[in-house]
């Protein structure tokens, strides 16, 4: 069985998730905000893998694998958007990108 | 047991470093430590394939992509603006109170949650069959290609959408426009740049 109680894993996952949220809310650099998103996805993966181990069902592993795929796609598109915005406005600050507000 | 607490401290410390680092490069290095610690934690949960995938995809692909973009943006004209942060505005007592409240809520919530969900099967290892095989590549692949085939195929669609999206975003638009309405496209681009400049001056 698990070496540690399942609630410890869930607690650690929740703490990492909230640190990721704090990174998105507090920082205005889009690169650091994307890293906050990665932290949140990793936290969800940790919870999935821990539950998968506790219940002896490896579908959680499949789910974590798909989350990793989505994270890779999200990072690629997010960084492409950052590059395009930087090429046009020469500043990397999400507060400056308000042109779509109309 | 000791491994879990060591890894938990490493994970939280490196995650805090990611969001408080002054330069994006330092954030990437802290994120690398975070991913490595998480991979070790996956190994301790006997999720070997996920641990290897974590190292390959996150540390090998995503972090290198981050590093390339940071290098690309820093090599532009002038100093690389980091953007204004809201971090210094948060006072230290408020931050400590937030962390304490967060930990208590998370731990209490996890314990309340543990009572709601049914207890894990006592013969969890027996359900999997061979306990050593759980989380191995063959075990993972057998599930992925039999019962979970549709999500696997949808992953291909997601990756294709991502590739097309990146090419459309970062690709060469001049090569894509036909020769005749090129003047119109140039006019539109100039107009867009004027709008952008106006937005900057505001």
Largest sheet of chain A: none
Q: How helical, in percent, are the residues of chain A?
A: over 70%
Shape assignment of chain A: elongated
Low-confidence stretches of chain B: 77-81, 125-129
Classify the secondary structure makeup of chain A into a structural class: mainly alpha
> What share of the residues of chain B lie within helices?
over 70%
**What's the average pLDDT of chain B?**
79
Q: Helix and strand succession of chain A?
A: HHH
Low-confidence stretches of chain A: none
Averaged pLDDT of chain A, please? 84
Q: Per CATH, what is the topology of the domain at 1-75 and 96-115 in chain B? A: Four Helix Bundle (Hemerythrin (Met), subunit A)
Q: Structural class of the helix and strand makeup of chain B?
A: mainly alpha
Terminal Cα separation of chain A, in Å? Answer: 56 Å
The Rg value of chain B, from CA coordinates, equals 24 Å
Strand content of chain A: under 5%
Biggest pleated sheet of chain B: none
Query: What is the number of helices of chain A?
Result: 3
Q: What is the H-and-E element order of chain B? A: HHHHHHHHH
Oligomerization status of the protein chains: heterodimer
Q: Using DSSP, what is the number of strands of chain B?
A: 0
């Amino acid at each position: 069985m698990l070496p540690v109680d399942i609630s410890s894993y869930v607690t650690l996952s929740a703490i990492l998730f909230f640190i990721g949220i704090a990174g998105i809310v507090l920082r205005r650099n889009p690169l650091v905000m994307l890293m906050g998103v990665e932290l949140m996805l990793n936290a969800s993966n940790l919870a999935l893998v821990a539950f998968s181990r506790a219940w002896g069902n490896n579908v959680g592993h499949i789910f974590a694998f798909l989350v990793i795929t989505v994270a890779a796609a999200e990072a690629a598109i997010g960084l492409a958007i950052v590059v395009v915005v930087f090429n046009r406005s020469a500043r990397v600050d999400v507060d400056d990108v308000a042109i779509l507000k109309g | 047991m000791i491994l879990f607490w060591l890894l938990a401290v490493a994970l939280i410390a490196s995650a805090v470093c990611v969001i408080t680092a002054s330069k994006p490069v330092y954030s990437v290095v802290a994120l690398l430590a975070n991913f490595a610690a998480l991979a070790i934690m996956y190994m301790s949960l006997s999720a070997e394939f996920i641990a290897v995938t974590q190292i390959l995809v996150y540390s090998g692909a995503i972090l290198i992509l981050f590093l390339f973009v940071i290098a690309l943006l820093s090599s532009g004209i002038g100093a690389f603006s980091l953007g204004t942060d809201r971090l210094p505005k948060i006072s230290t007592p408020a931050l400590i109170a937030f962390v304490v409240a967060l930990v208590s809520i998370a731990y209490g919530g996890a314990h309340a949650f543990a009572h709601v969900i049914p207890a894990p099967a006592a013969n969890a290892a027996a359900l999997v069959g061979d306990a050593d095989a759980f989380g191995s590549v063959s075990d993972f692949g057998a599930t992925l290609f039999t019962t979970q085939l549709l999500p696997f195929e949808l992953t291909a669609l997601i990756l294709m959408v991502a590739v097309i999206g990146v090419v459309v975003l970062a690709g060469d638009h001049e090569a894509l426009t036909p020769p005749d309405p090129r003047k119109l496209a140039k006019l539109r681009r100039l107009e867009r740049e004027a709008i952008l400049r106006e937005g900057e001056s505001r």
